[in-house]
Write a structure and sequence with these properties.
The chain has about 575 residues and is of the alpha+beta class. Helix content is about 35%, strand content about 25%. The chain has 19 helices and 23 strands. The strands form seven sheets. Strands 2, 3, 4, 5, 10, 18 and 19 form a seven-stranded mixed sheet that branches. Helix 3 packs across helix 4. The chain is elongated.
Length: about 575
Amino acid sequence: MISKEKQRIKVRSIIVGCVFSLFLGVVGAKAVYVQVVRRSWLSEKAANQYEKSYRLQGKRGTIFDANLQEMAVSVDVTSIAVHPKKISNPRSASTAISSALRERESVVAAKLTSGRPFEWLKRKVTPKEAKKVEELAIEGIEFLTEHSRFYPNKTLAAQVIGFSGIDGHGLEGLEYHYDKYLRGAPYTYKVLEDALGRGFRAESDVSPDHYYSGNNLILTIDLNIQFIAEKALEETVTQFMAKSGMAVVMSPKTGAVLAMAHFPAFNPNAYGKYDKDLWRNRVITDPFEPGSTMKIFSVAAAIEAGICRPTTVFSCENGKYAVGRNVVHDTHPHDRLSVEEIVKLSSNIGAVKISALLGPERLYTCLKRFGFGQKSGIDCSGETSGMLWPYQRWTPIDTATISFGQGISVSALQLLNAACAIANNGVLMKPFIVQAITNQSGRLIQRFGPAKIGRAISEETAEAMRKMMKTVTMEGGTGVNAAIEGYTVCGKTGTAQKIDENGGYARGRYMAAFLGFAPEENASAAVLVVVDEPKNQYYGGIVAAPAFKKIMGETLNYLNIPPAQKGDTLTARLTRGTSE
């Protein structure tokens, strides 16, 4: 009996031992699985409970002009953060901090009591604000070095350069278009949390003293020429009480943009204080009807096609000519004019008669070769292609009006670049505004240079057009106010009535323009001036031509282009210009 009892106890002990051994084996296996197989997952999960990472951006690269003068730089600034759980008295701290930073107390108080290990109080503060907060000596406040964009020339070339935001990303202009090159490499700022939930600083993944900065841009823009253009443009817009103005200076041989001016301007250091309409680069983005400046391209198409020569004479109907049910007018009545005189005196009727012989297909084809109706490919964002409908959709009046710059829209850049093709013996160049990208050590990463788009017209046609355009600035021409003593200036005036909201032409609202280049042979610079809605006077020869003269004259002087010797050139001096 006793032996059977002992046997049962022994069996129970064995069963219990086996069960406990099984449980122990399961626990051991689980421990091995968790600590060996899932080790990395466990470590990450644990780290997430006491470690927080905050991403900061490295220093943006510098933007230089063609002479390596700084146009946009990044400077070190202080940002202020807080570890809320280290703040012993949030109420009094929020009062003191909000006063020092000129922030709402409720906003500061919410951050100090958020319970999070880390909060930004204010980023990129002024030195005065940083000093005031530092003097408070509040435990849990931390001062971190970040980078702020600074534009030393203020409004100069503002629409071209653009600006970047608080996080170091480009938002407008070249800052936006070349953001991936300018933007610095990111680095991580870590905040650790102890067992009591209090945050404290850890080492960043990359030391802020050694993170990688962004690359630099070297532009084709010359700040001296840019200043010349902006000053002349401001004077003109102010004098004629205009809505706004644009001016562009280019190198006809290369397509390099030497200046791109706007007025009114804005200060990118405080871009938020200005109307957003002032931010964009309107030379690139805004299309407009070119008016009579288009006549030189219509005439070039006719000469290229061989249907007329500069000496060919057309009847200009004494200032009134019917095209179907529409009537085309000239500003001044003329009887018979040669093609050269049609350009010189800017006759609409002469241009219409030339285009009628040329026909829509040949006119359209030549205008496309000049780059109209398509983007130029300049390295700027938001470029418009303008508007040039396919010739199959043209009516006779469309062909007529396009010949003198109505029913077609262009950008200021397109228009000047097309004129540069005439100056460049008929070859159309691709315009560009950045000539090189370098790293922080100055090592060249990428270079951009002249690139041909194609031939717009033959050398012979280009030469004939230059000779005709030269007469525009001579005695009796519509652009006499653009003549520069000692230089042969080739140009063309333009006055275009603006389109209203309903698609018709607005009464009393005009765009006045003058484009040209100098000297006639081997042109060193080409300039376009466009003035939007001038008051009292609105003809391009009166409003825009004098501004062209100032910009071109000072630019040639700056570029050390000597005037022709006396006797080699004929210069007309008139006190009053002839309107087109």
